[in-house]
Amino acid sequence: MNRRSTRASGTDRMPSGVPGFDDITNGGLPRGALTVVLGAAGTGKTVFALQVLASGAREHGEPGIFVAFEENGAHILANLSAFEWADSVIPERGVHLLDAQLSQAVEHGGAFDLIGLLAVVKAKAEQVGARRIVFDGIDVLLGYLESASRVRQESFRLRDWVHESGLAAIVTAKADALGNAVQPGLELLDFMADCVVAMHHRVAHGIALRFLRVVKYRGAAHSANEFPITITHAGVEIAGNTTVEMSYPASAERISTGVERLDAMLTGGYYRGSSVLVTGVPGTAKTSLAAAFAEAAAKRGEKTLYVSFDESPAQIVRNVSSIGMSFSEHIDSGMLHLRSLRGRAESPEAHVARIRSLLSELQPKNLVIDPLSALSQFGNEPDAEGAALQVIELAKRAGITTVATSLVGNAAPLSEQTPLNVSAIADTWMHLTYLNQGGERNRTLTIIKARGTGHSNQVRELVLSGTGVTLADVYAVGGEVLMGTLRWEKENEARKARTAAHNGAVLRQKKAAVALAATSARIDDLVRQRAIQEAELERLQIDGAAEAGHRADETDELLQRRDADPEADVRGNTVPS
Amino acid sequence: MTPPAAAATLPPLTLRLYIASESPNSVAATKNLYAALARHPALQVNLEVVDLLRDPERGIRDGVMFTPMLVRSEPTPERRLLGSLGNRSALLSLLGVEESAP
Fold first, then answer.
1. Is residue A274 in a domain?
2. pLDDT tens track for A442-497
3. Which of A90, A470, A476, B71 is 20 to 30 A distant from A147 in Cα terms?
4. pTM value surpassing 0.80
5. Contact B67 A113 (CB under 8 A)
6. ipTM of the prediction greater than 0.90, yes or no
7. Domains in chain B, ordered, with CATH?
8. For residues B19 and A111, is the Cβ–Cβ distance under 8 A?
9. How far apart are CA A414 and CA A417, in angstroms?
């Protein structure tokens, strides 16, 4: 059926028809081998076993036999009618019921054994060509045996018969809450079985939580973890992603958060198909943020499922209209589907099943769960956490973008812890909180993580108004973040300061220009003065040379007249004073 | 020692003993039944022994899955007694006779 079955080692596997079970057992139940399903009353053992038979007959053409020790066939069929595969549990489809109760009417007159029973069952199996067989409520039968040693003896007989028959056999037996067989001697059945499946349930706050664990699988790898299960009209189902493997298509496409500035903070918005967790104390506008996303998606023409816990669709429509969102318009257009679930009415697993069926029915592109923490109203239980993870993984596998809100307790209102450890698996985690300051409570938004995307590490103020959700910058002054009125005041102050600064700058510029002009004027003046002085100097030099020439002529004349030595006397006599 | 006075008026019995061939419990049941019948010769008994190993279809048809099993179909109401019939009082009760004094 799938590639896992080819990987199975040792035993030949048979698809169980129980969704998720083949994953945790690497291919299903063992053929030609004995599987013991243990569980307290009402844990779903019989449903599990019948589902295996119904699936075998319906999907694999493998007839099966149901040997009933506890209830008669008519009773079993009546109890089955709620399951969608109930119509397969008829001889015409290949599922045969064999009544084998030891009713009250049977008296006990000594030792008995299973030899006759197994002979009858063998004949029936050959007659119908059975490949699968269920012995339901073996503890009831073996309880009639006189001693624990006889129980062991008949258990061995049954096991040997199964191995010889080549059938895939399931034996159901009652167990206590700890998963131990209640029948003395029956513990040997676990020991010699090839595969042991323990089912149990516990009630938390009035709600049944169901689990399944593969305790043993001879000669084969299997997951021994305890898995939450649901029992719905589809039967038993291992809830959520049961294998460790995670392979989701990763989209590079961004879609709007519904808040323009948040898109910017996330460098374009949420990744399509990613999961977003919004945490915060009550009243921090988690719902508004989720609603903004839903509205934006619906506006883009993308079908969006909005699952709300404990708030009616009418309430939600009214509430979001106060921040300017028109949900009713999108509901009418078929783009937005509001569904309200009652948090405490069902187990987390049942909610997961409900959401799963809504997803497959509506095939939305986006999902809002508000709040996801409704699943954990039983307290901080791993079950609830498991359920929350299942929802997120379910959506991821389907490529659905999910925005889930989660309430964090009032006890630590500033804490960024979330009771559901979903923050680890969510791709984007934003935390909303209040800051009390200057007589106001203001909402802040912090992006704690955003996988695969650049994001601002700054705290922003979240502002709700009649036109929707917006973000505002916050001011950090001396290590304190200012918001609301204080932010406004600060903004105002800053505006004034900017104006003043601007005016000052203009003035300085003008002054500088004047100074420059003055300097330039002075430079021009000096240049002019220099030119004048240069001209003056030139004139003086010319005059000086003419005078000297004139004097030399006179000296020559004088020397000629005195017949004197020109070198000696002329110098001393010719220098003017 | 006299046979119980009521024995003469006992209605005839239709019995079927379902066994699994020579398995120990089946052998024991057969012995115990024959011994009881031998001790009560006044009983009119129509006995059929069904071996489910040879004729498993009968088990399905008759709704008898376990061996050994003694079924009294007449007189009605039907009574079924499971096991090797070592429980003598239960066997005699089914046969409708009192335990004779030893």
1. yes
2. 888 888 887 776 666 677 888 888 888 888 877 666 666 667 777 777 777 778 88
3. B71
4. no
5. yes
6. no
7. 12-95 (3.40.30.10)
8. no
9. 9
